[in-house]
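Um, can you check?
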Amino acid sequence: MYRLLIVEDELFSRQALQCSVEFLYPDQFEIFSTDNGLDALNCCQQNKPDIVLVDLNIPGISGLNLIHTLRNYLFSGKIIIITAHDRSKYIREALSLGVVSYLLKPLDPDELKQSIDKCLNQLCESREQKRDDCFDSLFSYAQSYLIRDILNSRAPQKLLSDVYGWACDGSLNVSLLVWFPGQKPAPVLSNHYLKQTMGCLGKYFSLMSATIHGYVITFLKTAQTFAPLQLETVLYACLQSLHETFPDCSLILSEFVMTYKELYQTVSETLFLAEHAPGTFLNRNQQPTQIWPADTRFRLRQKFVQRLEEKQTIQLTQYLKRKFDSSEESWAWAALFMEALKQYSPSADLCHVLTIFQSQSRFLLLENYLGAIYADASAKQLSKTERAIRLMEEGFSREITQEDIASQLGLTPTYFSSLFKKETGRSFPQYLAEVRVKYAIQLILSGERDIGKIAADCGCQNKKYFLEIFKKYSGYSFTQFLQNLCKKTEESQL
């Protein structure tokens, strides 16, 4: 039974309203009534009504002030206001305080019922949410004790089998994921991590988690049948996403184990690694399947990167489609593409890309996603050539090669050379030489005259080579430049 309070100063209106509620909701409400705001406040404190019907114009304290006071005291009941005048200013203020609805006098029974029904629906939803929250808390509490027993090598096998589907016959297929931030995490951080974990891994695995001694322990049980290559791809995408969200914490995934004896040993080893390797990101599940030799894998990945750089979306998706249609290694190609995409765009959401590859319209969705990636890259990121120039300007004082820059950009040297010359009009060696000569001139103007030191500071250990590029790009030999500088200095002093 619910509780309802009527706050109305007119006796006839108050009695009529009570009769209406009793008629519309027989035996559903315990009804209280009062004619002023102060008594209404006391009634709310003592009887905690679920619904309050309050007239705005009441003695003691006004209906609006009563609502303010109830909200300040965190009153959780639902409020319906009653007024004889459509005074929009007061009604808007009351609605801003969370009032469910307002009714104009004389009251229409249908409108009264609609308003009370709305309150009852909200109360029902609130109670269901509280029950769900209590169940979640109880479930989490039980999980923490189950996980503690596993960590102490005392797994309640029958309970785990009946509730979570962990087999007792040597086919567990369970892995351990440990998150360790280096110190006991605040509850809000742990909750954020658990929410991210559920978002990434909950689609593919049954999860059991608990926070114990600063570790967030999560057991993964495969919720569907994975081919080995698909499992590797799913874990790669999900763990990359988690690691990017929590880069300074240890994140370690064990291999999938089949027996409880293996599980106890794996738990011990993984927790040791988490504690002694802060900041580690480690997937001990499986090494990537060696479908291709390392050099072939690198070449194929760079080919994907090049097509991404050139925005060859249609060619790229058609190439992948052919591999998916004709190859038993389709998930290996998906993983290789995701590696290349991450190299091209570090902000790419691999969990989303994984979802795309699992859909029936994967290649159409992939085209749309790449279009969004390109638009974002155009708006936010430097081009490869701009990044190359920045790398040159930051590193010219040491030995630096075209191959070094191409590698940092994830491009082949040949493609990088062609792209750089196309966008700058100069070859990489020409541009690097110009950067070094400009810096050499700055050193000379600052008073430095030792040619050996200037050459070394510009990244040229070969003094003869330095003198050659200095003359080529400044138009003067080193000696002529100094003579002209001295001459201009003398002239300026006259």
